[in-house]
Amino acid sequence: MSNQSKEPRLHIATIGKTVGIKGEMKFHIKCDFPEQFQKNSTFLTNKNNTITLSDVNHERGLIKIAGINTVEDAKKFTNVKLYTTREETRKNCHLKRVSFFGLI
Fold first, then answer.
1. What is the CATH number that goes with domain 10-92?
2. Which end of the chain is more exposed for a tag (fewer CB within 10 A), N or C?
3. Is the pLDDT of residue 31 over 70?
4. Judging by beta carbons within 10 Å of its beta carbon (0-12, 13-18, 19+), is residue 31 exposed, middle or buried?
5. How far is CA 85 from the centre of its chain?
């Protein structure tokens, strides 16, 4: 994500409330490319820092942030928005032959 500051940022997800006692959080995807949310993926936040996902459970809609292991620490990320760039999205998403990447 080296070009994050130069390119326009795209809001792709919002972190929700905590779930359980180990720092898992609800995850609300705001884009058409959920495959970009994988273990070790890094994203810029609306607080101008980066986070790395240490675990992603798409079926349950949960994520875990690297280094966050308690509910108290996880609560600091409630309602934090995640951003990426078009370039990063193109790099991390695989389109079918009849699909294309574009913005409305």
1. 2.40.30.60
2. C
3. yes
4. middle
5. 12
